[in-house]
Design goal:
single chain; OB fold (Dihydrolipoamide Acetyltransferase, E2P); 5-stranded antiparallel β-sheet; 276 residues; 18 strands; elongated; mainly beta
Length: 276
């Protein structure tokens, strides 16, 4: 079965005036218009294409790669708003439609919005929704504490940043764990720091506990090498100064330099840290 909104590997079945027809193993067919047909091809060659509906609501294939596919999240630009809803640029000829009912705030042309792409059961169309939280579920988690996870920055709050975890769950990075600028739609890597009651996920952008010592120690060593073997930081330095230079908390900084000191890789003096 040819899947809308996804990549399909199909066989070239036959040529036609408007392009070539592709087929899957079950014999379902879809047109690949001339503009996407390879210069050299043979019947029965396999080709990977993305399938969606054209302006006349017919399935059509393209070799272009959209910015978002079905069941995914992405930051997209709004090109136009009409009486029906917003139309977003997702890298294809036909724009991606986002109905008013699927907008957290009314979209404006030129604005950028984090959206989820899904297949509308009623219309069988691919549509976008900026109500991303409703596509996330923490009832049955697929992650454990200390797992590495892929993140998408969703929206800020008074206590930190809400993030989409592995495209499945909702998590939170608390302010005291953030040491870099974050913007909506940023793709990040993190760690599940803690799972709180109700399956609430606390996320860290760095390693957690003793796991953080080695990566942070490596970062300090690299910073020392980049600065002729000296850093104007000590265990008494202001936390903001440590954050600005190394993008880590003072607690993690002290653990890391303790490790390096025990390994006799650094000297800690009143005016700073020296590479041995």
């Amino acid at each position: 079965m040819i899947k809308l909104g996804q990549y399909n590997t199909l066989e070239i079945l036959r040529e036609a005036e408007q392009g070539v027809y592709l087929a899957d193993e079950e014999g379902d067919e879809v047109l690949l218009p001339n503009r996407y047909v390879p210069e050299a091809f043979k019947i029965w060659d396999k080709i990977e294409v993305f399938v969606y509906l054209d302006n006349e609501e017919r399935p059509v294939a393209t070799t272009d790669r959209p910015y978002i596919i079905k069941d995914d999240f992405a930051l997209l630009r709004c090109n136009e708003v009409t009486q029906f809803g917003a139309f977003l640029d997702w890298g294809l000829v036909k724009e991606l439609f986002c109905p008013f009912k699927e907008q957290v705030f009314k979209m404006k042309p030129g604005g950028w919005y984090l959206v989820h792409c899904y297949l509308d059961d009623k219309t069988n169309r691919l549509v976008a929704s900026s109500k991303t939280n409703r596509f996330l579920d923490n009832k049955k988690l697929t992650v454990n504490q200390f797992d590495k996870v892929d993140l998408i920055a969703s929206h800020p709050s008074d206590i930190g940043w809400n993030v989409i975890v592995n495209k499945k769950h909702l998590g939170l990075i608390f302010k005291d764990s953030i040491f870099e600028d974050i913007n909506v739609g940023d793709k990040l890597e993190g760690i599940v720091k803690k799972i709180r009651p109700g399956n609430k996920l606390d996320i860290s952008l760095g390693q957690v506990g003793y796991r953080s010592i080695e990566p942070n120690a490596d970062r300090i060593m690299q910073e020392l090498k980049d600065n002729s073997g000296y850093l104007n930081l000590t265990d008494k330095s202001n936390p903001e100064a440590i954050k600005e230079i190394l993008q880590m908390s003072k607690k993690n900084f002290k653990k890391a330099i303790g490790t390096l000191y025990k390994k006799r890789l650094i000297e800690i003096k009143p005016d700073g840290i020296y590479l041995v």
